[in-house]
Amino acid sequence: MLLIKNGYMIDPKSGLEGNYDILTDKDKIIKIGKGLEKPGGECRVIDGSGLLAAPGLVDVHVHFREPGFTHKEDIASGAAAAARGGFTSVVMMANTRPCIDNGETLQYVLEKGRETGIHVYACANVTRGMKGKIMTALTELKGCGAAGFTDDGVPLMDEQIVRWAMERTAALDVPISFHEENPKLIVNNGINRGRASEYFGVGGSPREAEITLVERDLQLAVETGATVNIQHISARESVELVRRAKLKSPNIHAEATPHHFTLTEDAVIRYGTLAKMNPPLREEEDRLAIIRGLADGTIDIIATDHAPHSVAEKAKPLTEAPSGIIGLETALPLAITGLVDRGYMNLRSLLRLMSTNPAAMYHLNAGYLAEGGPADIVLIDTAAEVIPGEYASKASNTPFTGWRLKGRVVKTIAGGRVVYEG
Ligand code: DOR
Ligand code: ZN
């Protein structure tokens, strides 16, 4: 058992907020109250004074690279990075090798996930081999435990496949998540067409590559009623498209990453491959539109797109290096520093974006603090300085190393067990 005394608790789901003690037994919260006494038997008492007690964070967009690319990350190291970042539930993307287009690989990944201290879920692919041509056995994959479906990393170009996939996932009541970048419009991935592409003298990736697919898929989402997640939004026009589509369907969701609400294309000029990601960082107006979207609920999820790559891979020239940055261990401090401290939202709204909403979209039993609910809790010192530099991830590909941020994870508790102590 664990008894967390005197933490400042925020449950974004019920709105309950204040100084409360939290008692857990096995993997459940059994009591929330004031002045709780230590029960008989084995019980660790944790002093939560001065700390925020929040639901364990939920990241519905991580790349753990196992099977196939374990020199970048594996499920154990990815889970360790998650725990260190305050995350107790994650949803793996399916662009492993082999990719998660079959039940065997899905079961392997979920089994590995169960060996970690946190809750590891996985999406399965929408199409076989992520080739965009033939749909996977969605029903069977859901039966094997797929939390949702995505070909993230590779955009789906066949509109008919997208429509069928939305119809099928709607019937199965699972979300389908979309990476929106039309490769036909892109010369170089990961570099915005504009100031960054001009600086490097390359073709880059124009905003239209994202906007056109977002427009197509929101239209299909409205027509099919599917639970659709527009992943890692980068352009202000996409935010506005989501805003309008949400008026027509309650089942539309959208993600933003910490890098897209923190950085602009100038970061690529400054940090090179460490700021190369798909979709790319764009302009200040885009960054601000994403923040407005997060603040008004248009974008209802913060997801990291944790994308580990090795030092050697990121040492390649800009146009050849792989896209993506790690995110699990910097997400919370970036959000506290960039969104809460700057006055765009309060902590309760932030926690909703980082736990309650993503958990609800993927139907995970997570993202709230309540008696009978999961003992997934993060204790945070919101005022403490954090300077990223050491990572539990195998990878270190992030431009945020050395930044002065605020918001330190003090303890992460998953399934009633302390899985990280800072
Ligand atoms: O930058 C990215 N990297 N974006 C993605 O969608 C995929 C990811 C990866 O797998 O490395
Ligand atoms: Zn991704």
Mind explaining what this structure looks like?
The chain has 13 helices and 16 strands. The protein is α/β, with parallel strands linked by helices. The strands form two sheets. Strands 1, 2, 3, 4, 5, 14, 15 and 16 form an eight-stranded mixed β-sheet that branches. An eight-stranded parallel β-sheet has the order 6-7-8-9-10-11-12-13. The longest helix has 18 residues, at 207-224. Bound molecules: (4S)-2,6-dioxohexahydropyrimidine-4-carboxylic acid and zinc ion (ZN). Zinc ion binds next to loops.
Topology readout:
Layout: E1 2-10, E2 17-25, E3 28-33, E4 44-47, E5 52-55, E6 57-62, H1 75-84, E7 87-92, H2 103-114, E8 119-124, H3 138-143, E9 148-150, H4 159-172, E10 176-178, H5 195-200, H6 207-224, E11 228-230, H7 236-245, E12 252-256, H8 258-262, H9 266-271, H10 284-295, E13 301-302, H11 311-314, H12 331-340, H13 347-361, E14 377-386, E15 405-414, E16 417-421
Parallel strand pairs: 1-4, 1-5, 6-7, 7-8, 8-9, 9-10, 10-11, 11-12, 12-13
Antiparallel strand pairs: 1-2, 2-3, 5-14, 14-15, 15-16
The structure holds (4S)-2,6-dioxohexahydropyrimidine-4-carboxylic acid and zinc ion.
(4S)-2,6-dioxohexahydropyrimidine-4-carboxylic acid is lined by residues 63, 95, 152-153, 179, 277-278, 305, 307, 322-324.
